[in-house]
Each structure stands twice: as structure tokens, then as C-alpha cells.
Amino acid sequence: MPSPRISKELKNKIHFLTFTVKRWYYLFDRYDRWNILLNSLQYCQNNKSLKIYAWVFMLNHIHLIAENSDLAGFTRDFKTFTSKELKKNLSETEPRVLELFKENDTYQFWQPKNWPELIENEKFYLQKVNYIEQNPVRKQYVKRPEDWIWSSANPENLLELADKRN
Asked: Strand (E) positions, 44-141?
């Protein structure tokens, strides 16, 4: 089944996105891998006009509410860049784990489907923000959303958040 795509008519709209590691493998919680994700998103914000409204990094997936003039291109580039960086990181730190992602002489770190959902109204937007920011609480990583550093709920603001009113 092909991955749902962001239609050309809706590419400038705000979407909820999920990027999931193959096999739901817990990959990001060690060897500075959170920063691979963070640095890539910061680069896209600074150089590719990516707007992020809410986000969370979990152990094996990330959620974003984001907007870009080419969100499909952002998705492709983000997955490509982070895959290269993850491969490099794993080859240096956990070569046996790297082999879990090998498929036909290539490495696949991300599941192909992102399930983009168009944010059509304020109620749906707030529902998705709540879902994103409560994710670490539901998984019992933290007691309060703001205690999870890898989230838009955290007051340290590791990623610049766009104002939805603009």
C-alpha cells in the first residue's frame, strides 16, 4: 500500500506528521541520537522555512505539527539526512544494531508511511497538540509534559515554535 501523500493543493497548510523507526525499535535514547533529530529540524527551520507548531521525540518515533511550502520535500530530505547520520552514528557506536536496519544492501531506518493529517480547524489542532505533548506522560517517561525535554511542552524551547495565528 502506498504512503499517503500531501496533495499539491494542500502543501502550504499545517499538517500533523509522524515519523516512526522501522520495527518500532528504540533507537534515539542513546549516543546523542536525539540531537541528530534536533539539529536536522533546526537546520530545516533556519534554511528551508519549516514552521513547527508542536513536536515530540519519543524513543522510536517523532510527531510534528508543521508547515512548509514543500512539506513532502521536507519529509523526504529529513528522512534522507537523518538516515545518513543514524547510519554513521550506529556504525561508530552499535554496529550490531545497525544490521537490524539493513535491507538489500541499503539501510532503512524509517517506516515509509508518515500518515500526514491536515489540520483543518482549531479543535483538531488543539487535540493534536495535546496528543503530542501528553505522549511522554502516557508512556510514563515523565509525570508532566513540560518535564520531557524533547517536546514543545518543555519551556526550554529547543526548537523555535511558530505562532499559529500568523
From this structure: 51-57, 61-67, 102-103, 106-107, 117-118
